[in-house]
Fold:
Amino acid sequence: MRTSRDAVELFLRRQHQYLPHLSVDCVVFGFHDGRLKILLLKWKGLDVRALPGGYVGRRETIDAAAARVLAERTGLARTFLRQFHAFGGVDRHESDLRRWFRAVGVAAPRRAWTFARVVSIGYYALVDAARVEPAPDFVSERCDWYDVPRRPRLAFDHDEIVATALAALRHDLGAGALEAPLLPERFTMPELQRLHEAILGRRLDRRNFQKRMLERGVLKRLAQRRTGAAHRSPFLYRFAAGRLVPGARQMTRPASLP
Amino acid sequence: MRTSRDAVELFLRRQHQYLPHLSVDCVVFGFHDGRLKILLLKWKGLDVRALPGGYVGRRETIDAAAARVLAERTGLARTFLRQFHAFGGVDRHESDLRRWFRAVGVAAPRRAWTFARVVSIGYYALVDAARVEPAPDFVSERCDWYDVPRRPRLAFDHDEIVATALAALRHDLGAGALEAPLLPERFTMPELQRLHEAILGRRLDRRNFQKRMLERGVLKRLAQRRTGAAHRSPFLYRFAAGRLVPGARQMTRPASLP
Structure:
């Protein structure tokens, strides 16, 4: 296995292959046991956690760069991936990255653009956590799921990126069938409500929720009911075909969801 | 006045002051006589129309770059400006820009990044059209308002940028008091409805519209009514303070709206 020092030096040799001063960061959300989860990296040899991210190839679209990062970290080739905001402050990166390079014993070259200002395009992904095989990148030793409300503090401005992603996800929640990638193909109204509660971070009134969901016109009630439940058998629903979110750049539902 | 050829050469000498491969484009919406308007530039000596845009200074945030472009083109220092999408395709720019440089008699330098790939961050602005003094930039001879449904075809991928801005504006319309910059401080329900119809591009049912608007909880009905109308005096409304759109980066209501 390549040491992190070798990997960093390899990266520095290859940096001309990327568009300078630009990166993508992916906020990967999953839903498991009624909890909203987020995928984070832990850097090698440092108590630093950060979002999966990467640079953009000179002949690679920014959407393709985000999809590549997501595929490398999750093993999922086709996922719901949505650009939500570009982060373009003037002091986003340099100090943390220089510190980490020093920690692995590499002198940060004075003229490398990776230590100067980087504008990052943020994408959020909605994935089925059960199908993800988290894989660290070359600067990380671990890649793990964390509960969103109990996530650790992150490096750079990644806390702001996560907060903005959550706001965008909440803002988008009313439109189309955004929740589809986080739910089984057929689900009950209480299951849908628990997902909304996890995203919004608060409890919702059952009757108002059901009324609002049915008014959205994106749900189709099935003839079949959920059996084997402790109480009376609840109705099963699925999302109506073709009611995906407008404006989403990439939104491919995994082919083999249960 | 500087000729366009001089201006282009000045720009080429100054391009090291900007972050390479990055730009901002502003979709400036106004509302006048019940119509949604858009501010467009016409290039010098060519039948080419495009969005106001510019490059990002090496020590300038992307938000500040967009605000600067907007201020230069409209004369407005403080406006509602919202980042909505980054456009990062691999062939966005080069051919049109090279053609225009040739038209003004400047050979496009082989190594200038402005002719290579550029990623552009899109912002939409909502402004009071009556207060705007449109001003062309150094590559343009005119800066004018156009009706959104009757706008001309635009250069580069600017038609896609406008379509995406409209989709974002429509998507954002339900949240907070987004419409405030496009309306007088006090307005009637029919005036609000005409704005929504202009943005959505379709007629709305009066009673459903009023019900939905009141349910949003962002409107405050005033004791005062509009007088002098042909029919019965309609109620006046204003937006409740502090109900602006979540996630907006910059959202300053002009200080001196009527």
